[in-house]
Amino acid sequence: MSDASPFSYAIYRLVPRVERGERVNVGVVVYCKAKRYVAARTALDERRLAALWPSLDPAPLRPYLEAIERIAAGDPTAGPIAALDEGERFRWLASPSSTVIQPSAVHTGMTADPASDLEKLFKQMVATP
Known about the structure:
With about 130 residues, this protein is α+β, with helices and mostly antiparallel strands. About 30% of the residues lie in helices and about 25% in strands. It has four helices and five strands; from the N terminus they run E-E-E-H-H-H-E-E-H. It is globular. The two termini are about 30 Å apart.
């Protein structure tokens, strides 16, 4: 792995009722400074959501998940945060939050292909079989 570079990632979790301690993983954001890479992938498993919170309407959550992906990608229509450089966008996306959608602590690793690692983390941590 001579081409490997350090990377950081955070897992996004949906936490509608903090007092119950329940959460559902809904996304991953990956950042690799050496490769100038930052990207996020999100998904909302409505069956899992309904099992824990039957009365929660998933529709209002989708735009927030889409915004995470758009900001990570630097989409110019995603507002001023999306105009920041890769590292600043990642730090903003991974900063602690007390909202319904919260990032985990930042984790690190080594990667030769951050896009591939994003997909691997997404399948491992978010996607359902």
